[in-house]
């Protein structure tokens, strides 16, 4: 976020020590750290909430797309049964009719 190195932090600390004095500087530094922590927490929570909302919106779009496609539901058992019945029909059609056993020889 901010590119602050050690030398910059040292300079801020020295100026703060000169301006505020040694009695008020530690208290002010603790308060600044507290506020900075609260700001970071607030920023983190806001980012998480935005991410949740975007993910929810994307999920809604995907569901709408899925519903609009209206893909047929496939039943594997029904497919197997249909395939087996078609195989039986093809075998029955290819066979000659069985001879009748009641024919008289004469």
From TrEMBL:
Residues 82-106 are annotated as: Disordered. It is found in: Cell membrane; Membrane. Pfam families: TatA_B_E. It is a single-pass membrane protein. The keyword Cytoplasm does not apply. Keywords: Cell membrane, Membrane, Protein transport, Translocation, Transmembrane, Transmembrane helix, Transport. InterPro entries: TatA/B/E, TatB. It comes from the Bacteria. Its main location: membrane. The Tat system comprises two distinct complexes: a TatABC complex, containing multiple copies of TatA, TatB and TatC subunits, and a separate TatA complex, containing only TatA subunits. Substrates initially bind to the TatABC complex, which probably triggers association of the separate TatA complex to form the active translocon. Belongs to the TatB family. Part of the twin-arginine translocation (Tat) system that transports large folded proteins containing a characteristic twin-arginine motif in their signal peptide across membranes. Together with TatC, TatB is part of a receptor directly interacting with Tat signal peptides. TatB may form an oligomeric binding site that transiently accommodates folded Tat precursor proteins before their translocation. This is Sec-independent protein translocase protein TatB. It comes from Methylomonas subterranea. The gene is tatB.
């Amino acid at each position: 976020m901010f590119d602050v190195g050690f030398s910059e932090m040292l300079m801020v600390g020295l100026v703060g020590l000169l301006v505020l004095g040694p009695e008020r500087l530690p208290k002010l530094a603790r308060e600044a750290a507290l506020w900075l922590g609260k700001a970071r927490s607030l920023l983190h929570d806001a980012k998480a909430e935005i991410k949740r909302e975007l993910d929810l919106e994307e999920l809604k779009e995907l569901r709408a797309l899925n519903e609009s496609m209206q893909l047929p539901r496939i039943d594997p058992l029904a497919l197997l049964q249909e395939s087996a019945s078609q195989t039986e029909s093809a075998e029955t059609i290819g066979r000659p009719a069985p001879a009748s056993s009641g024919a008289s020889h004469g």
